[in-house]
Amino acid sequence: MVAIEQINYIKSPASVVYNSLISEEGLSKVWTQKLKVKPEVGFVNEFDFDEGYITKVKVNELKEDEKVVWECVESDPEWVGTIVSFELYENEGITTVVLKHSGWNKITDFYRWCSYNWAMFLHRLKSYCES
C-alpha cells in the first residue's frame, strides 16, 4: 500500500482551517461547489466533480481543531477503501496541515494526478483561510 502525503502552512488559526474542512461553505470554496457535507461522524459526504460519478466519503473521525478523517466508500475504483486525513497543528497563529491519502494499492497515473490535485487543494485552502 502507498500513500499521498502533502503539507502546507496556513497563517490562520486551526479553528478556521478545521471549520473550512468540515463545512459546505469551506469545502465549496476549495474543492467543488456540488456537495453535501455534514460535520458528523458516520455521515457520508458527497462531492460531484462532473466526472460521471459522485465521490462519497464517510466521516470517520472529527477532533475539533486537530483532525478530520474520511473513508472513501464510492468513487473512482482506485479511491474506494482509501483514507483521507487532515491533521492540524497550530503554533503562534500558523496552522500546519498534514494531508494523508492512504490505502492506495499501487502508484498509477491516477495516483500521481491525485497527488497533484491534493497539492492544489491545499493551496486553495491556504488562500481561502488567509483571506
UniProtKB/TrEMBL annotation:
Residue ranges of domain Activator of Hsp90 ATPase homologue 1/2-like C-terminal in the record: 12-129
InterPro entries associated with the record: ASHA1/2-like_C, START-like_dom_sf
Source species, domain of life: Bacteria
Species the sequence originates in: Marivirga aurantiaca
Family classification: Belongs to the AHA1 family.
Protein name: SRPBCC domain-containing protein
Pfam families: AHSA1 (PF08327)
